[in-house]
Amino acid sequence: ELFAAVEPLLPGLREDGVSVWVLGAGPYPAGVVALQELLDAASEELEPEDVWEPQDMNDTCLYIFTSGTTGLPKAARVSHLKSIMCLSFYELVGGSSRDVVYLALPLYHMAGSLLGVVGCLGIAPTPLHPAGATCVLKEKFSASQFWDDCRAEGVTVFQYIGELCRYLVNQPQRPGERQHGLRLAVGSGLRPDVWRSFQQRFGPVRIVETYGMSEGNVTLFNYTG
Predict the structure, then answer these.
(1) Considering the entire predicted model, what is its pTM?
(2) Which of 134, 122, 109 is nearest to 212 (CA)?
(3) Are 101 and 120 in contact (CB under 8 A)?
(4) With contact defined as beta carbons under 8 Å apart, do 212 and 220 qualify?
(5) C-beta neighbour count of 99 within 10 angstroms
(6) In this predicted model, what pLDDT tens digit does every residue of 123-150 receive, in sequence order?
(7) Do 210 and 93 contact (CB within 8 A), yes or no?
(8) Structural domains in the chain?
(9) What is the tens place of the pLDDT at every residue in 55-114?
């Protein structure tokens, strides 16, 4: 649905040697790689390990996009090693395979895709929960629907960016705001006044504040609250 914004730029992109891949029904002009057709035609047999195993764990695994605080959004390189390190995120903050994680963050950011989705995959399975934690993806955050979503989906963990919690405490008070299964909120940028208001209003939810950077090599966790 975003291809129309890119199509006028195709001649310049071709001159710069930039490939354009599109997922979704076509048709698309020549020079555009239609991924859906390739996926439909691909074999379900796994290729030999030496085809897909990285030669060096510091090689590029994927690119995420920054929020554009200092200009337009720009790509940031993420290595295979850093991606694998993100597998342990939820276990580091007290998550388990019984948890249901609510994720409304953009998946082109590291917080949503790597800490959120990959973190759910990395939680050690148990016989009753053999595939890591459950991840509930919300296309767009809604402060008015949040607690209804939590009750409907059995959410136990909320991954936030600080202002999402401010949106929640700024909502008009409603009956049943403390009737939920949320036990843990984890994220970055939560201001002290919002932290206090959130727990006073919505109950004794444990909050673990973290801080890291896409291209940094150190991450901080506030375990003590």
Answers:
(1) 0.80
(2) 109
(3) yes
(4) yes
(5) 22
(6) 988 887 778 899 999 999 999 999 999 9
(7) yes
(8) 1-50 (no CATH), 86-221 (3.40.50.980)
(9) 999 999 988 887 666 777 788 899 999 999 999 999 899 999 999 999 999 888 888 999
